[in-house]
């Protein structure tokens, strides 16, 4: 097994305090990366999106071991394959997915509804699905982020963490298919499957929420965007949302929708999403609030109005099934993923990018290598 020298963004400690441009929690460092074991591949990263799941590790809302090389939404080309890898080849463009699926556990038997059990365990300990770590600095191990660690020039990942896509899919588009679209799109298509004209409301218009907006539009739904920031409401309208409201305005207007997607990761957003569900409607929550967050809802409305609340991790996705389907929607012009990109940046701008994500001024910033 060969070792390669790479450059990546390491989170030294968590939680870290904003403004991140000043405190610099992420260090751009030279690291050692071991080549792939038998069931792994080495990928040269082409593009990596910056997501709230990265920020939630920086600010401590999601507890992960440190030091950790962050980044979980990415695309790149395979440059080396392990001895037991038979369905992937050097030169292929692949999309990373932050929850690998072993294919054998009780979670994988639910067709995406439940997370993979060993995949989740590996993510929590900062290891790859096959066990252990491939990253180090001066001989000391560096933890992997969600089995990917894509804020770097290269990544060694389990073969079950990647899905091949055609060369016609640009790397910046391909990267977003692996998290924003899998999560937001899956909340729409895997959980509810709306039809032409179905009223779909999306609460929280970040990258995942806007991906839910685009996906709902791709099937002809009547889409309603909801966010506290006026700029996000304008962006939703520009993408094609028929209506856009602040949370208070939506409640005051008596708005109701058959499907409501909560993508903000905040208890007040969850309460809003539940309140906006129509009689017989479904609220799907994909946001990840802090572990101590609590929300208040009325159980009576769930019973009396026959409503449903569904939790959906990674959009209840099976990446090898869903990513090619989203890529095809992009090819057909029905899912313009590139419209989610608010900025293209370099790896050295990562701390400033975290500030823009935290203050809500960015939709999806993409590191281009």
What is the CATH class designation of the largest domain? Alpha Beta
Number of domains: 2
Structural class: alpha/beta
Mean model confidence by pLDDT? 96
- Span between termini: 25 Å
- SSE string, helix = H, strand = E? EHEEHEEEHEEEEHEHEHEHEHEHEHEHE
As for the CATH topology of the largest domain, it is: Quinone Oxidoreductase, Chain A, domain 1
CATH architecture of the largest domain: Alpha-Beta Complex
Count of helical stretches: 11
Give the fraction of residues assigned to helices: 25-40%
Largest sheet: 7 strands, mixed
Low-confidence stretches: none
Nearest-angstrom radius of gyration?
Answer: 20 Å
Q: Tell me how many strands there are.
A: 18
Question: Any overview of this molecule?
Answer:
By secondary structure, the chain is α/β, with parallel strands linked by helices. It has two domains: 3-181 and 316-368, Alpha-Beta Complex (Quinone Oxidoreductase, Chain A, domain 1); 191-311, 3-Layer(aba) Sandwich (Rossmann fold). It is 28% helix and 28% strand. The chain has helices at residues 20-23, 52-58, 117-125, 171-189, 207-218, 230-239, 247-252, 267-275, 299-304, 319-331, 350-358, and strands at residues 3-11, 26-34, 40-50, 68-69, 73-81, 93-96, 135-137, 140-144, 154-158, 162-165, 199-203, 222-226, 243-245, 257-262, 277-285, 308-311, 341-345, 364-368. The protein starts with a strand and ends with a strand. The mean pLDDT is 96.
